[in-house]
Amino acid sequence: MNTFVDNIQYSKKNFKSKELSRTDFDSCTFTNCDFSDLHISNSEFLDCEFIACNFSNTRLKECSFKQVYFEDSKLIGVKFNEIDPFLLQMKFSNCQLDFSSFYQLKIQYFHFDNCQMIGVDFTESDAQYCVFHKTNLKEAIFEETNLENANFTTAENFVIDMDKNRVTNAFFSRENVLNLLQKYKLNVE
What we know:
The chain is mainly β. It has 2 domains: 1-91, 3 Solenoid (Pectate Lyase C-like), CATH 2.160.20; 97-189, Pectate Lyase C-like, CATH 2.160.20. The protein contains no helices and 14 strands. The protein has strands at 3-6, 9-11, 19-21, 23-26, 29-31, 39-41, 44-46, 49-51, 59-61, 64-66, 68-71, 90-93, 111-113, 131-133. A 7-stranded parallel β-sheet has the order 2-5-8-11-12-13-14, with no helix packed on it. It is elongated and about 60 Å long.
C-alpha cells in the first residue's frame, strides 16, 4: 500500500541519493527541492507543482504525473518514457529538459513554454496539440512522431522531416517553416 501525502509544501528539501517509492503526493508544492539522481518508483504526483527543482538524471519508473506543473526547473536526462502514461498531463515553463526522452509516449496537449530542450528524443511519441512556445529544440529528434495540430509558431532551432513525421494542421511561423525543408538543402533568398 502506498503512503499518501496531501497538500504539503516542501521547500529546499534534499531528496538526493535516496529512493522514493510507493508514495502518492496530492496537491503538493515543491520549491527549490533536489531530486537529482534519485530513483522514484511506483509513486503518483497529482495536481502538484515543482518550482526551481532539480530532477537531473532522476529515474521515474512506473510513476504517474497527473496535472503536474514544472517551473524554472532542471530535468536533464530524464526518461519520461518510463513513467505510467495513464492520464498523463504535464506543463513546463522556463525549464531545461536537455537530453530527456519522450520515446513512444503519448504527450498530447503538453505545454512547453520558454524551455530549453536540446537533444530531446520525441521518437514515435504522440505529440498532437503540443505547444512549443519560445522553446529551443536544437538537435531534438523527431522520428515517426505524431505532431498533428502541434504549435511550433515561436519554437526555435528545430528540424522536422515531413516525410518521417505526421504534421497535418501543425502551426509554424513564416520564419521557422524553412526548418521543415532543411533536408532538401535549398538555397532560399
